[in-house]
Fold this protein.
Amino acid sequence: MTDLMHILSQFPRASLLGAPTPLEPLPRISDTLGIDLSVKRDDLTGLGLGGNKIRQLEYYFGAAQAQKADTILITGAVQSNYVRCAAAAAARLNMRAILQLEDRVLGKSDLYRENGNVVLDHILGAELMHYSEGEDESGADTALRERAEQERAHGFHPYVIPLGLNNPPTGALGYMRAAREILDQRQDFDAIVVASGSGLTHMGLLAGLRLCGSDIPVYGSCVRRDATTQNARLTEVARRLQDMLGCADFLTETDIHLWDGALPPGYGQPGPRAQHAMGMMARQEGLFLDPVYTAKSFAAVPGLLEEGVLKRGMRVLFVHTGGTPALFAYAPELTAIFTEDQA
């Protein structure tokens, strides 16, 4: 077994996570589904209303501090939890935050563009800029780097947190660390289910487990791309992560498990499976899922059971990655869905 914490110690880290997040049983849904289901409460990472991105940002901000940066620049969707968490981290660490918001979900109202995470971005004192394309990671990174050069010309010391696949997967280090935390809490899970978007949370968790000697399978529920496209992305993230760590061939394609049954009708749009997942978690366990990530990721649990990938009686962990503020940007749609459901 590799000394995971020794590997991680090579990378600078800003401490943003106050303590390990709880790992809790979900007894009512366990009874409903016939499994032993638990939840890793990474919605409770604390800073800036929390979420999984806090773990990733510890390493990006660690690198920024090592370079004596005073300004961070980052890209995300209009309702991005990532950029909201980055703005909170910047405030905590006395840095400026410039957030570039992409149009990934078309046809949304002014409420979507002004509520939820966007309100919090403003309260946190971040500067917002916009990028019109939602599927152009390279272009978004280029726009941020051009803005960084402008900041440098004005005497600031910027650090860009990149979006594109052709960058070191630094954020994955946060979920490698989370893997050790989970194993310290409980080691007997038969499967772990998590959202798979950028791939850094999914692949970091998987890499951390394998380096700790655990063979627990990790099932990623696709929230942005179909399973075929996401598989190619994760394969590249795995290659770059292994290169960055200097640990070769501890991840293979057979480690990658994906499910895209809740992806339709697309990123940021909750279809029937996501809606059902939201209602189940709220009405049986009193926990809220968001329409972009966690509703679609939790939908994989009953979905994989229906397909026979997960079996009755299994011990399953669902990683709750947060995202609650986005609920308020979807208020009209969600009100219509769930009041009709009660009729």
